[in-house]
Amino acid sequence: MSESTDQHRKIAHSKGPVALAIVTVSDTRTPESDTNFHYLRPEIERLGHSVVGYRLIKDEPEQVEAALEEMVNRGAQVILFNGGTGIAPRDTTFDVLSRKLEKTMPGFGELFRMLSYGEVGSAAMLSRATAGTYRRRVVISTPGSPNAVQVAWTKLIAPELEHLAWEVAR
After folding, report:
1. Is residue 51 within 8 Å of residue 78, measured between CB atoms?
2. Residue 42 and residue 37: Cα distance in Å, rounded?
3. pLDDT (tens digit per residue) in 52-86
4. Cβ atoms of 143 and 86 closer than 8 Å
5. What's the CATH number for 18-169?
6. What is the pTM of this model?
7. What's the alpha-carbon Rg for the chain, to the nearest Å?
8. 157: which residues sit within 8 A by CB, 6+ positions away?
9. Residues in Cβ contact with 62 at an 8 Å cutoff, skipping those fewer than 6 apart
10. Is the predicted pLDDT of residue 91 greater than 80, yes or no?
11. Which terminus of the chain has fewer Cβ atoms in its 10 Å neighbourhood, N or C?
12. Phi and psi, residue 67, nearest 5°
C-alpha cells in the first residue's frame, strides 16, 4: 500500500463514523424479506457507522431518483443502492443513477465484475454495478443478489468506506 493511501485512510478514520443510507430496488421484496438490508445494517453498525435512511422501492425511474434525493436530504454520506443493475427491461437503477452522477468511479464496477467473475463466471458481464459522486456524497449501486451485496461490501466498500466519505467531502 502506498504511503499516501495509508495516510489518507488514517485521516479519514479520524473524522469519525460515516452516515449511510440503504436503498433496495425490488419488485418482489418486502421489508421483512429484504435480506440485503438485514445483512448490511448490522455490518455497518458493527464498524461503528450509522444507517440514517432506508427505503425499499420498486424498479421505477421516478422512485430511484426520489430515493436518491431523499437520502441526500437525510444526510447520508454514502448511499448504497442494491438491485436493478442488470440488463432486463425492468432494470433501471443504473440508467437513472448514471445520469445523476457528477463523477463516476469506473474502478468500482471493474473491480466488482472481476470479483464476481470468480463467483459466477462469465455471467459477471451482465452486471452494471457502478459508483460515483452526487452532491458531495458517494453513491454505490450493486446487483440485488445477496452474494453480490456481500462481496461488494466485504471486498470493496467496507475497506474504503471512511476513505470514500472523506475524499468526497474534502
Report:
1. no
2. 9
3. 999 999 999 999 999 999 999 999 999 999 999 99
4. yes
5. 3.40.980.10
6. 0.95
7. 15
8. 78, 80, 140, 164
9. none
10. yes
11. N
12. -65, -40
